[in-house]
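User: Small ask, check this?
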Amino acid sequence: MSTHEFFVANLTTSALAGTVTWHGGDNSQEVSVAGLQPGTCSALQSFYPTSGTRDLWSWSERGREYQLNCYEHDRYVVVTISNYGIGVLPTDTSPDTWKW
């Protein structure tokens, strides 16, 4: 089983509250974003997607789930939280190589 990791980037104008959760079948993982300041990122959180199941992402401060399925080569996911809501971006490149 390949390790997949996600982190949360705060793109809002204020500190965040709550948690961001990934659900895939019977599995789930969450990361606390309480106090995460604007322009900063959370720590990496491992998650384990399963082929054939939907990947659902949610932020506890907003009641909706966002579906974006991860595939074999999508090893990293950045979950963005902005003043407009949540976004999910998968990639196969390490965040250490990203230029901001």
About this structure: The chain has one domain: 4-97.
